[in-house]
Amino acid sequence: MTLTLLFSAPDRLWPAYREALPVALAAAGIDARITRAADEAPEAVDYIIYAPNEALTDFTPFTRTKAVLSLWAGVERIVSNPTLTQPLCRMVDDGLALGMRDYVVGHVMRHHLGMDAHIHGLDGRWDQVVPPLARDRTVAVLGLGALGQFCATAIAALGFETLGWSRSPKEITGITCAHGPDGLHDVLRRTEIVVTLLPNTPATENTLDARTLALLPGGAVIINPGRGALIDDAALLSALESGRIGHATLDVFRTEPLPAPHPYWAHPRVTVTPHIAAETRPATASTVIAENIRRSQTGAPLLHEVDKKAGY
Ligand code: NAP
Q1: What's the per-residue H, E or C state across the chain?
Q2: 267 part of the active site
Q3: What is the pLDDT of residues 134-178, one digit of tens each?
Q4: What's the rounded mean pLDDT across residues 47-71?
Q5: Would you call 120 a catalytic residue per the annotation?
Q6: Which of the following is catalytic: 227, 247, 281, 304?
Q7: CATH topology of domain 3-92+280-298
Q8: What are the structural domain ranges in the chain?
């Protein structure tokens, strides 16, 4: 039987997936027709390959659809859609994880080594400030899922004392894990660099607010490639002004693109990157999509299915 797959995502993604999806589907032994047609009969669609877009917001007519397969790791823009009764899978992709690891390690090392002082020039001063060894610095990763765990393991492999925080208890070699609100407070009190890789859910909004930012040692650095809503922006700006927070490297924002007048753009202790920390890579992501369709068709459990109640 030929399956009908609806590719419902922004236009810019189509050229790469038009190449990659047929290759991955063929490799998984799936006979499928991929359509982009807005007028495709919804009741004929077997699977929806999805990234947030204006054209598809009502999933009700997709009565035959067995799963919605997200191209994005973060699903906050679809997970609470009341018309979405079909199972939703998020993207966990090697390309995404490798990209995030590179971003996080790069920015951790920048702050650990104090590179900015040399890049911006010391104006003829021979200030021999030697950075500590990685083993003498503590880094925390908030969120120990597919991306957080991968990044935390890479940070630990460089020698940093690495702390991690998640919703449920975890044991990960080389990482001191904590969970729950008390666990967060302990982690923040002990860390000089915090990486936030939590999903955007009602429970994670403003994880870093005035109260939790105040727990960090003076001059601590925040690296947020997770989601903008994890941070209370006003509290962060105030902590940056007071010097309590030394620097914030931010890749994600409540409004994207970050509006031109936003104080983050011009702040001397904020680095803005335009949501480029990690991108889903079409070749590897297509393999994940094909595998999930294969599983669904053979009655096996789906990979990376979202817990709609928890929101991630
Ligand atoms: P994931 O596998 O779903 O992991 C989420 C982690 O957060 C889990 O460890 C989870 O705890 C923890 N968590 C969730 N709610 C929590 C809470 N209330 N308190 C404490 N911990 C909580 O997600 P992922 O694949 O690692 O991705 C993480 C996020 O990165 C995505 O949601 C997305 O927002 C962001 N992202 C950004 C980019 C970018 O380019 N900037 C790219 C991709 C993804 P449990 O382990 O106990 O469930």
Answers
A1: CCEEEEEECCHHHHHHHHHHHHHHHHHCCCCEEEECCCCCCHHHCCEEEECCCCCCCCCCCCCCCCEEEECCCCCCCCCCCCCCCCCEECCCCHHHHHHHHHHHHHHHHHHHHCHHHHHCCCCCCCCCCCCCCHHHCEEEEECCCHHHHHHHHHHHHCCCEEEEEECCCCCECCEEEEEHHHHHHHHHHHCCEEEECCCCCCCCCCCECHHHHCCCCCCEEEEECCCHHHECHHHHHHHHHHCCEEEEEECCCCCCCCCCCCHHHHCCCEEECCCCCCCCCHHHHHHHHHHHHHHHHHCCCCCCECCCCCCC
A2: no
A3: 999 999 999 999 999 999 999 999 999 999 999 999 999 999 999
A4: 96
A5: no
A6: 227
A7: Rossmann fold (3.40.50)
A8: 3-92+280-298, 94-272
